[in-house]
Amino acid sequence: MMKMIEGLTSPHKYIYHYTRWANVILASRTLKFGMYTNTNDPKEAKDWRFDIGSNEGADVGLYDMPALAAWLSHEIKASTRLACFSLDTSPITGNHIDDIFNRGYCKPLMWAQYAARHTGACLVFDFSKLERLVQAQFSPGGLVFGGPMQYFDRKLFMNTRDKAPFTINLDFLERLGKEEYARAHLLTHYKRFFFEKMKDWRNECEFRWVVLEKGTSGDLFLKFEDSLVGILFGEDTDDSQIGELKEMTSDMSLEYMGLKWNNCSPWYDYRNPRYYIIATER
Fold this sequence. Notes:
Largest sheet: 10 strands, mixed
Number of strands: 14
Shape: elongated
Mean pLDDT: 94
Low-confidence stretches: 278-282
């Protein structure tokens, strides 16, 4: 029995990473936490615009609002790195026939967008093991936040409360100074900044870890160790690539499987003997 596919009853056991760069990831045995501004969501990639306000009558005319907004946007984003994954969704019943459409590795749009149009791979991780490694490797040098994305469509014209994340409070800025204010503003509003997208993204069922490390100039890399438990290959993953990735991971006791579409329906490539490697007990 394949544990990553059959008999699963919890939607929280595994977490999934779609990629066209599986060979790079598996050769280094690391996951990249890339720059926040390199995502494909304009909300995250573009500079944020901030208003300024005061509850205590500060003279807003003394401030260059565009410059202040550009400063805070840069302060929040420049030290932010993240890695993105997909989740299983309830119900997960243990019946792999019925559950396939709720599995995090069975998302055609994700295969198309992030795994090179079904030619890449989907890496399967043990969620709890990966979470412990993220905290152990990144918490000592920075702040680590993790969680599922929330999906909302927010209108341009919002009430005062909803506008708070994108409003610079001059009263606190003057008391704290720029550096402390930027940190306080981020810690207050990080969920809106990093864990919210429009509803159009909701079928990704995204979970992400965000690392805030002051002074970071490049990408961060997580050693995923034994948290990787399996690899799913796409409908059009080349046979030679499958063989290469299996050879690269032959010492890791992984499970392997391919997804194939039969007319409208995805299914597992059970008939292909190349996937049947007995994995050691974890």
